[in-house]
């Protein structure tokens, strides 16, 4: 079996479909070094029904490597962690933290193949309604 390379950490986004605002805390470790630790407040859904979305600035290297992304919401003390080792062999990974209409948040990730990968964060993985049902 051939060794499989780690993926590139592509984009991170937060999507809120709840009517209330929430704060999502994100930590990114790249090659065992913390390169991002910040909190992001996202407004509630607009009156016209428009979801709120926020892209996180890509403050990590754009090359394949071992990384971990830790996420939690509001005052919750439990971090949810995504590790690149779980997705060896994928070209890149895009991660979203989705806050549902019930106010609960879950992380979602999606592999991106070589042909579709771009450094620009312009397409939400949460735009697909099938994804939202998971």
From TrEMBL:
Name of the molecule in the record: Uncharacterized protein
């Amino acid at each position: 079996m051939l060794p499989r390379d780690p993926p590139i950490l592509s984009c991170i986004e937060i999507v809120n479909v709840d009517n209330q605002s929430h704060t999502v805390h994100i930590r990114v470790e790249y090659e065992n070094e913390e390169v991002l630790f910040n909190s992001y407040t996202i407004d509630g859904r607009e009156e016209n029904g428009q979801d709120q979305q926020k892209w996180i600035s890509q403050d990590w290297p754009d090359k394949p490597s071992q990384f971990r992304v830790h996420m939690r919401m509001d005052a919750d003390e439990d971090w949810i962690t995504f590790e690149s080792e779980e997705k060896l062999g994928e070209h890149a990974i895009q991660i979203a933290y989705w806050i549902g209409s019930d106010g609960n948040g879950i992380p979602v990730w999606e592999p991106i193949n070589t042909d579709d990968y771009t450094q620009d964060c312009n397409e939400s993985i949460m735009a697909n309604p099938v994804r939202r049902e998971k």
